[in-house]
Amino acid sequence: xxxxxxSNRTEAPTNxxxxxxxxxxxxxxxxxxxxxxxxxxxxxxxxxxxxAVIVIIFRLWVM
Length: 63
Fold this sequence. Notes:
Number of strands: 0
Distance between the termini: 88 Å
Order of helices and strands: H
Shape: elongated
Helix content: 55-70%
């Protein structure tokens, strides 16, 4: 009634993706740089804007 989809295999599967076969192109490096920028930039922007707001409030308070 039910057939095994793996019954017609004659050889064991081999892992062709070993550590030695990994190649990194410039597109991968560029993608990682863009991804890091997208993750880090909001934190840096929020930190800088928070610092600017604190400086403005302090200057208004001192006046």
